[in-house]
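Please produce the structure of this protein holding phenylalanine.
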Amino acid sequence: MSTVRFSRFGFILAAVGSAVGLGNIWKFPYVTGEYGGGAFVLVYLITALFIGIFVLIAELLIGKLGQSDAVSMFENLATKKKNLWKYAGFMAIVPLIILSYYSVVIGWIFHYIVVSFQSLPSNIEESKNIFMTLLTTDLQTQFMYHTIVFVLVTSIILKGVKDGIERINKILMPLLALILSILFVYSLSVESFSKAVTFMFNPDFTKLSSEAVIVAIGQAFYTLSLGMGIIITYAASLPKHVNIVKSSLIIAVIDTSVAIIAGLIIFTLLFDKGAESTKGAGLVFISLPSVFYEFGSIGTFLAILFFIAIAFAGITSAISMLEPMVSFFVNRFNYTRLKAALICSLFFYILGIAALLSNITDYSPVLMIGSKNLFDWLDFVASTILVPLGGILVVVFVGHFMDENKINAELIPLLGKTITKVWFFMVRYIIPIALILVILNETGIFKF
Ligand code: PHE
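Below is the modeled complex.
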């Protein structure tokens, strides 16, 4: 492993940069809407804070003790079956698959920054039209933005952990915090803010299905970038004296707060104009633009800030998705960073082009597999099946295949004996079962 390391602050920022992404600002509000508001938020908070922090600690432990790339760390740290465990490290391919379409979505966001500057749609029909035109016919625009994202993230990754990843996070994350604060303060002044608070924090348990619980667990993993070798890889570049428990807490609390704040902002604006809360994936790209329009000239300003914020959040996440495989090639095969970055970036770039083509009407028939097109398949397989699967591998590995004494030596001074035992129990038994339930539910093998 290279000797270049994050600074302590740089590490936290980079991990938060990875965690805070489209999942927080785009996905969290719409699943909250779909699964009934307050009760879902409560379950999500509990799972993100408990399961999330426990698994974050597990991933930070692997990185801190392993000090290498994901594949080598699983191989070196396994007390038995090393040869098999190294394959677990290939979970690092999952974020590259996610990045293929994530990059396309960041491209849409870039497009919406431009749309906000030019003219926002004046009603929902027009808004739908703009989005569907972009999605199903505008190959050129999507291709152009996807290419811009490709060039951008590759050039940052090329510069390495400190001058690339840490640096960009130090610029974008404070700006993101500033923009979200401005939007939040504005939404405080809007009358419907209290409605949004009630919607998000007044749990109506009759609306809570067991499926919602399962979805909340899946969302907690996705939003914290767990189960993909990302946090593991970042943690391998941790500076020496870092309290991994405190770091996990900070990462999870900031990530969760951003999701809640984004939710409050979005629901305040929607409720103020009488728009619906359950708008599925179109919430940000269809409902919000026309709501911004109704706010007049301040709305244009809010829209620009809002889309810039999501773009920043998306870019810092995108960078984190590249790093695990890049570090694998550099470390295992002694590739230069340039060669490794190009291989990984071209992989996601080309797959991303296929994904975006699958939404274009002229090409979609060729890229349909069964009931879904390639874009939706990639999202489904990667984020709903492979991410929880990666999570299972992490907890089973840490709970059953790593040297318990080494783990105790790290955790007991930080957590004390009893809580370390609770952590082991969760990691060994409860979390794997919870994740199996997530997969069964998502694949429809067993619906809750
Ligand atoms: N955690 C990111 C988000 O919430 C998503 C992500 C997925 C990041 C995969 C890295 C890897 O948007």
